[in-house]
Amino acid sequence: MEQVKAKKFLGQHFLTDESIAERIARSIGADTRCLLEIGPGMGVLTKYLVDSPQYHFKAIEIDRESVAYLHEHYPTLDLIEGDFLRLDLKTIFPEPFAVIGNFPYNISSQILFRVFENRNMIPEVVGMFQKEVAERVAAGPGNKTYGILSVLLSAFYDIEYLFTVHEHVFNPPPKVKSAVIRLRRNGVTQLDCDERLFVQVVKTGFNQRRKTLRNALKPLNMSLDGIPDTLLAKRAEQLSVTDFVTITNTLTNLSTQS
Fold it and tell me: Do residues 116 and 216 both lie within one domain?
């Protein structure tokens, strides 16, 4: 297999195994039209996407050396030099677009929060993450790794853990394993509650995840009367999206009545 010159940037470790890059590229849905790669680096994944007639394909890269490398080796690539976390996403494509990438470990959660915030623009994500992050995102209620991102993303996406990636296929090798997950928008267009309060409730509940909801939600400074005791007696990691919606609606109703 071709060894790709790579360097570490923003916590990123670049793939040197072509078969894994190709497998990631094949994981994007067949009906995808617009596709954005985040952090292409030296193009190990890009090469399987850039000339595909299936996609209107773009990539975004913040590192100047990587940008220069990509311009030289992939002259047809529609490349944006910038930061995905700061870019106005409406300027990238005129229609919804999928996201793909070997995401830098230290900003991968921020990327997913950005996806959540722009969920109506991003119907699909296929990405490589630190294995711990991937497991957390894909976890369901009752799992110790279940957390804020698990709840927020599963409210609007179907999440699949696709496969594990071992350390030796990266340059430089990370100290942890990685994993590839796929997120696809489900049929939920909006939650049956105040979504801003829903996010606040979820974050507050998990900020003190060892406490029961009765104690963990105290920082909200809202009356918890009316919330079923069966929910208040549980910890955040035991609650489903539906449970959090129920709590949010109860808080909303109590606030309206007071």
Answer: no
**What is the pairing mode between strands 34-38 and 98-102?**
parallel
* Residue 254 confidence (pLDDT): 65
Q: What is the mean pLDDT of residues 85-97?
A: 94
Query: Which residue segment(s) compose the domain that 217 sits in?
Result: 195-257
Does residue 230 share a domain with residue 157? no
pTM over 0.70: yes
Q: Could you give the CA distance from residue 33 to residue 36 in angstroms, rounded to a whole number? A: 10
CA–CA separation, 61 vs 80, rounded Å?
A: 6
Res 256: pLDDT: 63
Classify residue 5: in a domain, yes or no.
no
Q: What integer pLDDT is reported at residue 1 of this predicted model?
A: 36
Residues 28 and 144 in one domain: yes
Instruction: State the Cα–Cα distance between residues 90 and 69, nearest whole angstrom.
Output: 27
The DSSP call for residue 9 is: B
Q: Is the pLDDT assigned to residue 7 strictly greater than 50? A: no
Q: Using one digit for the tens of pLDDT, what is the confidence trace for 125-155?
A: 999 999 999 999 999 999 999 999 999 999 9
Residues 163, 107 share a domain: yes
Q: Which helix (H) or strand (E) element contains residue 115?
A: helix 108-117
Give the closest residue to 183 by CA, choosing from 132, 249, 111, 79: 111
Kindly calculate the radius of gyration of the chain based on its CA atoms and give it in whole angstroms: 20
Query: Is there a domain that residue 190 lies in?
Result: no
CATH number for 137:
3.40.50.150
Task: Clarify whether residues 138 and 237 are in a common domain.
Answer: no
Tokens at 94, concatenated: 């005129």
Q: What is the mean pLDDT of residues 52-57?
A: 94
